[in-house]
Amino acid sequence: MKEKLDRIYEKYNQRVYVHPDPLEFLYGYDDIRDREIAGLIAASLAYGKVAQILKSVGMVLEKMGPSPFAYLRSTRSARISKDFQSFVHRFAKGSQLSAFLNGMKQVIRDHGSLHDCFVSGFSGADETVLPALARFSETIIQGSNAASGSCSPGHLIPCPEKGSACKRLHLFLRWMVRTDAVDPGGWEDIPASALIVPLDTHMFRIGKAIGLTDRNQADALAAREISAGFKQWSPDDPVKYDFALTRFGIRDDLDGHDALMRQLDWGF
């Protein structure tokens, strides 16, 4: 199985297969402080139809200008709310996005950057990023409440301790921690071995098909089980295969899950 997975990784973990994926927005930012903000925005809006995701993420980043970090650091909270008052992305409204951005603004004010905030809650003794991710999420939520009063970022920044697989937050961490042909990285002091698979419907189906979980729901426990399963083939980087494997469910030119299972010699 490792040989088959590595073969798929080598073939499909390439920039040519990124589009359409909000990950592509991160490639335009060399400064890690800009990249992490763009990444968290892109990941948090990564639900719904891909065309709308790309449109929404592009609109937000365009409004923030060439440096999202500079925008958040220098723009007043009231102005941020005004800039995005008409924003809509499916069931996310402008008030939620503004609260989310103001939460990040507060984090930058208190910690210096998103990275420094996350690292402050990470311990080398932690087997996974989950404890640090819970603190990171809560810090942004608290910051948004302090800046926005009654407004909340809602589903844009979920709480890991509530049992959700937190697919979008783990997707963000994959982008920021790993460095290869696809993931741009930048958070070098967080080990890839601590990452959790971003569990969307595609990876959940794959995980069940190859026997990594027997859960009936794509929840936090399923994400941990599937991540642990991939560790048997890639102990230092359990999310290594995530991008390549999920391309089959995302890109029309790769013929879907049946084609993937044929490459793995694994029937449903």
List the main descriptive attributes of the protein structure presented here.
two-stranded antiparallel ribbon, globular, 268 residues, single chain, mainly alpha
Topology:
Elements: H1 2-12, H2 32-44, H3 50-64, H4 68-74, H5 77-83, E1 88-89, E2 92-93, H6 94-111, H7 114-120, H8 130-148, H9 167-177, H10 201-209, H11 220-231, H12 242-250, H13 256-264
Antiparallel strand pairs: 1-2
The number of helical segments is: 13
Largest sheet report: 2 strands, antiparallel
User: Assembly state here?
Assistant: single chain
Helix content: 40-55%
The count of β-strands is: 2
Distance between the termini: 16 Å
Shape: globular
Strand order of the largest sheet: 1-2
- What is the chain-wise order of helices and strands? HHHHHEEHHHHHHHH
- Calculate Rg over CA atoms: 18 Å
How many domains make up the 3D coordinates?
A: 1
Q: Catalogue the unreliable spans.
A: none
Give the integer mean of the pLDDT values. 93
Structural class: mainly alpha
Q: Which percent range describes the beta-strand content?
A: under 5%
What does it look like?
With 268 residues, the protein is mostly helical. It contains 13 helices and 2 strands, in the order αααααββαααααααα. Strands 1-2 form a two-stranded antiparallel ribbon. A hairpin with a 2-residue loop joins β1 and β2 (92-93). α2 (32-44) runs antiparallel to α9 (167-177), α6 (94-111) crosses α8 and α7 (114-120) packs across α8. The protein starts with a helix and ends with a helix. The mean pLDDT is 93.
